[in-house]
Design brief:
It is a single chain. By secondary structure, the protein is α+β, with helices and mostly antiparallel strands. The protein has four helices and three strands; from the N terminus they run αβααββα. It is 50% helix and 17% strand. A three-stranded antiparallel beta sheet has the order 1-3-2. It is globular. It starts with a helix and ends in a 5-residue tail after the last helix.
């Protein structure tokens, strides 16, 4: 798998939450409240997918300097 495929990897809400080190409920709350804006794909009524590259961009945006 090359870097482009890795960065475009699709993750479920549970997988995305584990990647960020939070619970799936927290990720859902962030989305519904608008507190954190991480792009997602909503498929049907309940299925949500995130791109790993979007999660990486979020992590970069909240990084604090030493």
């Amino acid at each position: 798998m090359n870097n482009k495929e890795l960065s475009n990897k699709r993750l479920t809400r549970q997988e995305a939450a584990e990647y960020l080190g939070i619970t799936a409920r927290t990720l859902a709350n962030w989305h519904s409240s608008g507190r954190v804006k991480i792009p997602l794909y909503k498929i049907g009524r309940k299925k949500v997918l995130y791109l790993q590259s979007d999660l990486d961009a979020y992590l970069d945006s909240v990084r604090q300097p030493a």
